[in-house]
Amino acid sequence: MLLGSDKSLVKYYLSQKPFLEIVRSELDETSKELQPVLLSLLEAAYNEVEDFSLKLEARNLSHSRRVKVDKMKEIMANESPIPSSSSMIPEPVGALPSPSINIPYPHFSSCNPHLHYTAYLNDDPFMPAYSPIPLSTSKKC
Questions:
Q1: How far is CA 70 from CA 53, 56, 59, 124, in A?
Q2: Which of 116, 125, 126, 141 could form a disulfide with 111 if both were Cys (CB 3.0 to 4.6 A apart)?
Q3: For residue 135, what are the contacts with CB-CB under 8 A and spacing of at least 6?
Q4: What share of the chain is helix, strand, coil (3-state, %, to 5)?
Q5: Helix or strand or coil: residue 107?
């Protein structure tokens, strides 16, 4: 009995084969006709989403700038008046007192404290006024 039902199903499927081929060819033709339409619809949908994303990016940028403006206004409102510049600079810890008029300036050369700085003057107009190397070699560092 199972073998008989299989034969009848095979005959039925074979009888439907020409109809299925006709329907398949119509489907292929229709899909070829619709491909350009589907492409244009897909492109339109893409452009719509792209415009939306640009608006969303602009909205995010606008929102972040608004938040920054509000925060800056809040900071400026909470700030105390600007103090004078002299009170803003603190005195360094362990700072030396400012020099008085009676304290002499240090010598030009720490190698020879007895040699006055005028010994380094140069008479050549194209050379610097003070030679970077002491001209006297009486004492070396």
A1: 25, 21, 16, 66
A2: 141
A3: 119, 120
A4: 60, 0, 40
A5: coil
pTM beyond 0.70: no
For 52, how many CA atoms within 13 A lie in the half-sphere containing its CB?
Answer: 6
Answer for the pair 115, 134: CB distance below 8 angstroms, yes or no. yes
Fill in the DSSP letter of residue 125.
T
C-alpha count within 13 angstroms, C-beta hemisphere, residue 35? 6
Instruction: Record the tokens describing residue 15, joined without a space.
Output: 């009888």
Residue 140 above 60 pLDDT? Answer: no
Amino acid (one-letter) located at 14: L
DSSP helix/strand/coil, 20: helix
Residue 67 in tokens: 């938040």
Give the tens place of pLDDT for each residue, 100-110: 566 555 555 45
Q: What's phi and psi for 83, nearest 5 deg?
A: -75, 165
Asked if 130 contacts 122 with a C-beta cutoff of 8 angstroms, the reply is: yes
Average of per-residue pLDDT across 12-22: 92
Name residue 30's amino acid: T
